[in-house]
Amino acid sequence: MKPRQLFGLVGILVSLNAVSSDVEGASGPQEISTGFVAPVAMQLPEYLQAALDPAPGTSFTLITRPGLLGNDIACRNYCSHRYSSAQAWNSDQSLLVISNGCGGLCFLDGQTYVPLFRRAQSAECEWHPRDPNMMICVGGQEIFTWAPRTNRKQVLFVSTDGSILQFGPYKGNPSRDGSRIAVRAVRQDGKMVVFAFDLLQRRKFAEIDLAQIEGSNGACSISPLGINIVCIQKGDVEHTFIFSVDGNLRQQWTEHHRPGHGDMTVDADGCEIYVGISKSDPDKFQVIKRRLEDGKVTSLMRYGEAQHASLRSLGRPGWVFLSYSGDPGEVSKHPDWAPYAREIIALRTDGSGEVRRIAQTRNAPSDYWSETHASPSPDGSQVIWSSNWGLPGGPVYDFVTRVDWRQYPDRGREAGTPNCLH
Predict the structure, then answer these.
(1) Is this model's pTM higher than 0.85 or not?
(2) How far apart are CA 246 and CA 35, in angstroms?
(3) Rounded distance between C-alpha atoms, residue 304 and residue 337, angstroms
């Protein structure tokens, strides 16, 4: 089967009939069934040519493909953004970074997706949430800021004890205002620690010994308000531990993966929350949110095939963007499940269950690199996602879907102040 073949022949006539009355076109928002919608067949779009996703009625664009894209940017068999919880766009959405499969960090125009330039960078870097010209980087023995356009760096901290520093690794984000990060370090004596670092004050907080908690560390990240450090520990089960930046253990979630594969934000009441997929009872395979302050759990979406959650739409709080995998044929047989398979949705984090359907991914199960990993732009108007377009082991492309929010007004912006209510 070739990549440009039609995907998902079974059930196509049914699905076309199901959605034909819902789709108004690419120019405006539309309501769509809240029930299961089978995959709609379509050819792989042409590179950089906007296409209509017929089921949700959204416009989307193929932005990477194997081979030379231009301006010293060439893609391997996979070419994609880094991860669901990593911000792909800078704060003003003028630049979009591709991190996987292009031989460095490859920067595209954030609106047209035209290739601009490539940079070699060995450190782990994430966009500053407020300064569009800056990334925050950790690598080797340094913490520094870096301007990709000019390729200039400013060193903020150098380890003097030989510690090797990491940003996360791979799952770290700065605080919402860009002032603090969590840094994992391996000291010369082999001990693994984590500490908060204030970029404005150039202040290193106390080291927290990760050997004191059960399991081996997977990653640590600063919380959205910069007041907590969240660490994921792996072993027979995956536990979550939450420390204050001063090193006090505040929460330990000993249930396996409750939640995981998620992201953090600030809820409407000012509480920091982690939103992800639970793999433990009583909410196994549901999408849940959990408060960092006291561990309170709220279920947001019933049992289903959600795989990753992203809260990178910092300027449109109150929505989590979910990547669903699963077999559409199997999901359609279970009306009590969440009715999404190989699909991206946006879900309100207030517990109302309100959903906005974003894209059908047509992504066949294969390996890690082909997982969808949907991640929104800062204002939520664009969502980047990956797909092998129905060909397991075939090329993995990146796509961007445009989202019109006119029918989905904010309900009093969920962002605020650290006034968490009990």
Answers:
(1) yes
(2) 47
(3) 5
